[in-house]
Amino acid sequence: MNVPTFEQMLEAGVHFGHLRRKWNPAMAPYIFMEKNGIHIIDLYKTRAKLEEACNAVKQIAKSGKKILFVATKKQAKEIIEEKIKPLKMPYVIERWPGGLLTNFPTIRKAVKKMEQIDKMLLDGTVDKLSKRERLQIERQRAKLEKNLGSIADLTRLPAALFIVDIGKENIAVKEARRLGIPIIAIVDTNCNPNLVDFPIPANDDASNSIALIINTIAEAVKEGLEEREGEKKAETQVQQEIKDSKERSRIRFVRKKEEIRHRKKNPEA
């Protein structure tokens, strides 16, 4: 797991916080200094917290559980989709569906509705409807896909949330905290890090800063998934070896049994 160096974070602008007048006092431990009225984040602490967050997401991915990534601000949408979609982790980059966590069964019903429409499209049921009804269903499908398509595979509550900008995603934060779901998040100087289990003090507005951190988190998730796959293969191999060993023992036993039977029938042999 390669955590970005001090120089890489400096180049990406990770250290730039908000104006001093917008700061949250709870961020004081992570602020290095003030320059021209802007708070500068302590990158050594950012690096330590990022490494801690990476270890957490790696273990979650290795356990086979899901992490829900949330980033509806325009600077982060494409980055999340590009890096997280290939990992087959759920993500929200459009409007946060209220009750996604606290009213999860209802959200699942909406996802199933999308699946039902897909089935209707495949078996030709939609073709039997009027043009107006067909158009309504297609519009409904497009709307569901936009809002819920990226979480269609989320069949149970996620093991954790990764959030870009907890100020903007405050509803997601409230729902996760209410259910006791751990939160990993990029936290800028205008936010309260105490709302997050694994805060990563960093600039949550600059696309370069967001990309650097998400890339690092995505790599940690990938490592966890690869280790899980490796362990599964090793376990399968061990089970196959045990099975082969048992089969060899069974064959030896059968042969021995046949040999004894043969000797009894032919004592002079």
Features:
single chain, 269 residues, alpha/beta, Rossmann fold, Helix Hairpins, 2 domains, 54% helix, flat
CATH topology of the largest domain, what is it called? Rossmann fold
Number of separate strands? 8
Strand arrangement within the widest β-sheet reads 5-4-6-7-8
Which architecture name of the largest domain does CATH use? 3-Layer(aba) Sandwich
Structural class: alpha/beta
CATH superfamily of the largest domain: Glucose-6-phosphate isomerase like protein, domain 1
Structure explained in plain terms:
This protein has 269 residues and is α/β, with parallel strands linked by helices. The protein folds into two domains: 162 residues, 3-Layer(aba) Sandwich (Rossmann fold); 55 residues, Orthogonal Bundle (Helix Hairpins), CATH 1.10.287. The protein is 54% helix and 12% strand. The chain has seven helices and eight strands. A five-stranded parallel sheet has the order 5-4-6-7-8, with helices on both faces. The longest helix has 59 residues.
Ordered list of secondary-structure elements with their pairings:
Blueprint: H1 6-12, E1 16-19, E2 31-35, E3 38-41, H2 43-62, E4 67-70, H3 74-84, E5 91-92, H4 104-123, H5 131-148, E6 160-164, H6 170-179, E7 183-187, E8 198-201, H7 207-265
Parallel strand pairs: 4-5, 4-6, 6-7, 7-8
Antiparallel strand pairs: 1-3, 2-3
Helix pairs in contact: 2-7, 3-7, 4-5
